[in-house]
Write a structure and sequence with these properties.
Length: about 80
């Protein structure tokens, strides 16, 4: 299952790097119990979202790319340990 998630995140990471996105777009990241990225959600109305109690950190495109690259590196390191 981890391998499938790696492929999906890699494709999404490539998409983020290549596609043109509005500079106003913000994303949130949900992590699983092992602190791997489980889900990425685009927030359409960041101002409204910030007003919600307990809201997660909103990430810019550049920050999201860094988070996904770090997650990818962690997953690859874990896969190499298992070999």
């Amino acid at each position: 299952m981890t391998f499938i998630k790696n492929i999906k995140m890699s494709n999404f990471l490539t998409h983020l790097k290549l596609a043109n996105h509005s500079k106003n777009n913000r994303w949130i990241v949900k992590l699983d119990k092992d602190n791997f990225v489980r889900e990425v959600k685009l927030i359409f109305n960041p101002k409204e979202y910030r007003q919600i109690n307990g809201s997660k950190e909103l990430l810019t495109r550049e920050k999201l790319i860094k988070v996904l690259e770090l997650d990818k590196d962690k997953r690859e390191a874990l896969a190499n340990e298992c070999k």
